[in-house]
Amino acid sequence: NAGVTQTPKFRVLKTGQSMTLLCAQDMNHEYMYWYRQDPGMGLRLIHYSVGEGTTAKGEVPDGYNVSRLKKQNFLLGLESAAPSQTSVYFCASSATYGTALSHEQYFGPGTRLTVT
Amino acid sequence: QQQVKQSPQSLIVQKGGISIINCAYENTAFDYFPWYQQFPGKGPALLIAIRPDVSEKKEGRFTISFNKSAKQFSLHIMDSQPGDSATYFCAASTGLTGTASKLTFGTGTRLQVTL
């Protein structure tokens, strides 16, 4: 049981390049999330998904796109990377039902992205 | 607009001391208040959480105190240990059941516990 995994772990992009970050979870969770973490700003929600085939915008969605073609995978895309997207990206997942604490989000190890 | 304000930004505590981190929120619709712990190079992990119908929750050395009228909550780490050195994030969300838990995070507190 690997939990939440993210690939790649590190990436350096030039301005204007594109890339896709992959998140996978093996806990059969319905909900998945993408966050970015920047110094002094905590974690901010980019996009999230409440189930296969559905996505929604979070707090900072501009410049990102997502897809949830399979329940276990959640992809984050950058079509034209900008230096402002230099950050650490975290994926998380959570269950939909059960006790109040099933609200818990399980985070992956993160992807450190640098855009030059 | 930052909906969850966290302080202090950093904290140094001696081993055996009490670490206290404070958070204040603005949105009265928040109904779930977790604390996440993050070690360097790792993703955050849930430490302890509270709902607004209780004023305190304790799990081992970790306690959340919640003041609904003041819209504040805090994390207390008793008998702080070097292994507690990490970054702590408070968070808040609405919609416990049937909807996604969209967490709003504080800006984090870097705790260092010295020998």
Layout of secondary structure:
The complex is a heterodimer of chains A (116) and B (115).
Chain A (H helix, E strand, L loop, with lengths): L3 E4 L2 E4 L5 E7 L5 E8 L3 E10 L2 E4 L7 E3 L5 E6 L8 E8 L11 E2 L3 E5 L1
Parallel strand pairs in A: 2-11
Antiparallel strand pairs in A: 1-3, 3-8, 4-5, 4-9, 5-6, 7-8, 9-10, 9-11
Chain B lengths: L3 E4 L2 E5 L4 E7 L7 E6 L6 E6 L5 E4 L2 E6 L4 E6 L8 E7 L11 E2 L3 E6 L1
Parallel strand pairs in B: 2-11
Antiparallel strand pairs in B: 1-3, 3-8, 4-5, 4-9, 6-7, 7-8, 9-10, 9-11
Outline the structure in words.
The complex is a heterodimer of chains A (116) and B (115). Chain A is an all-beta fold and 116 residues long. Chain A contains no helices and eleven strands. Chain A is globular. The model of chain A has no long low-confidence stretch (mean pLDDT 92). In chain B, strands 2, 4, 5, 9, 10 and 11 form a six-stranded mixed beta sheet that branches. Chain B has a five-stranded antiparallel beta sheet with strand order 1-3-8-7-6, with no helix packed on it. Chain B is mostly beta strands and 115 residues long. Chain B is built from no helices and eleven strands. Chain A binds chain B through residues 4, 31, 33, 40-45, 48, 50, 56, 58-59, 90, 92, 94, 96-97, 100-101, 103-110, and chain B through 6, 9, 32, 34, 36, 41-46, 49, 51, 89, 93, 96-108.
**Mean pLDDT score of chain A, rounded?**
92
Reported for the largest beta sheet of chain A, the result is: 7 strands, mixed
Order of helices and strands of chain A: EEEEEEEEEEE
Low-confidence stretches of chain B: none
CA radius of gyration of chain B is: 14 Å
Q: State the largest interface.
A: A-B, 29 and 28 residues
Count of separate DSSP helical elements of chain A: 0
Descriptive labels:
heterodimer, A: 116 residues, mainly beta, 7-stranded mixed sheet, 53% strand, B: 115 residues, 6-stranded mixed sheet, 5-stranded antiparallel sheet
